[in-house]
Write a structure and sequence with these properties.
It is built from 8 helices and 15 strands. By secondary structure, the chain is α/β, with parallel strands linked by helices. It starts with a strand and ends with a strand. Bound molecules: NADP nicotinamide-adenine-dinucleotide phosphate. The site of NADP nicotinamide-adenine-dinucleotide phosphate has 27 residues, from helix 1, helix 2 and helix 3.
């Protein structure tokens, strides 16, 4: 199969189209013909081996980056409940044991890590939602204790994860405030945020409000900076481990407050819940751009530029 890969850790420009064997379907698994992939910051981190990238993928070269996929089941392993021809979406595990990438024509995954894609959602949109909406849901529910009537602050609301955090919180009946750069405020308001804050004009330190959940999707703050924004039983959720996270966990160990770090996992039940929202039109996709398969390096470079609004999709087949 054709797959984009690097032969060593380096720069995004090193990505080359390789011909490599397709992965083999295992018992309980499915072989998926990838129709679309989506780009995450993890992709350039994995290619460069920097910013934790070496912990997210096996150091097995040629190394194929890419996590999110949506496509069609082509072969089914013994005991798997899906059928050939089913349209499914999901993401590969962000682990050192993962030696596959979705910037490729096929992935082979356990059937209980994917969900059926809604008919009215394109493969590109489903791929965009896979990691980011799962991260939003798992962070809000499992680390934040999301409930109706809460007030949620999303830092980085215009990003891949943040754009879904806004919508998942809104779907649960929360009041959502979001921060982003000035040029992206309209897009965040359209996702359902009650208040959108220009992060440069009003930094977190100058906000005068209390929140049940502060979800730092940009992961640029610390618990210490956000503690004054939390209600007495409020939760701070972040996506990148750092010293501030450790301090926050210690500070909340004996308090009603929580400080949580998400490690997103591909779970069929969460992806099915997300698919349900997509089918009902309650989860839309802030798609920045869509690239053809032969321009995967451009797509990853755009992600690395930091200019992205929402998600970048890749049409594979
Ligand atoms: N732990 C996990 O399981 C997990 C899962 C998914 C992602 N992640 C990580 O979480 C981070 C976010 O992922 P993503 O896909 O949402 O990335 P993304 O699409 O690049 O979004 C990040 C957003 O942060 C905002 N931002 C940039 N600089 C900022 C600053 N100084 N202060 C506040 N906001 C700033 C940007 O929006 P504006 O330009 O509008 O400000 C941008 O849209 C990445 O580091 C990613 O690797 C972790």
């Amino acid at each position: 199969m054709r797959a984009w890969a690097v032969d060593r850790y380096g720069v995004v420009d090193d990505l080359r189209l390789h011909e490599i064997p397709a992965p083999v379907v295992r018992p309980g698994g499915v072989l998926v013909r990838v129709r679309a992939a989506a780009v995450n910051p993890a992709d350039w981190k994995v290619v460069t081996g920097k910013q934790g990238g070496r912990f997210l993928h096996a150091a097995k070269f040629p190394l194929v980056p890419g996590y999110d996929f949506s496509g069609v089941v082509e072969a089914v392993g013994e005991g798997a409940t899906l059928r050939a021809g089913d349209e499914v979406y999901g993401f590969l595990p962000y682990r050192r044991s993962n030696a596959q990438g979705s910037f490729a024509e096929y992935v082979a995954v356990p059937a209980d890590t994917v969900a059926v894609k809604p008919a009215g959602t394109s493969h590109e949109e489903a791929a965009c939602a896979a990691t980011s909406a799962s991260t939003a849901l798992q962070g809000l529910r499992d680390k934040g204790g999301l409930a109706a009537g809460q007030r949620v602050l999303v830092n980085g609301a215009s990003g891949g994860v943040g754009s879904y955090v806004v919508q998942v919180a809104r779907n649960a009946g929360a009041e959502v405030w979001g921060t982003c750069s000035a040029a992206k405020m309209d897009a965040v308001a359209k996702l359902g945020a009650t208040r959108v804050i220009d992060r440069k004009a009003t930094p977190l330190a100058s906000l005068d409000a209390k929140f049940d959940i502060v979800y730092d999707a940009a992961s640029m703050s610390s618990y210490g900076e956000c503690a004054r924004l939390l209600t007495p039983a409020g939760a701070y959720v972040t996506l990148l481990p750092n010293l501030g996270l450790g301090v926050g966990m210690l500070r909340t160990a004996f308090s009603a407050r929580r400080c949580g770090f998400v490690i997103v996992a591909s779970r069929a039940d969460d992806l099915t819940q997300i698919a349900g929202w997509m089918a009902e039109g309650r989860l839309t996709h802030l798609v920045d751009s869509t690239f053809p398969f032969d321009r995967v390096p451009d797509a990853v470079r755009r992600m690395q530029s930091g200019a992205v609004q929402g998600k970048i999709a890749v049409t594979v087949a």
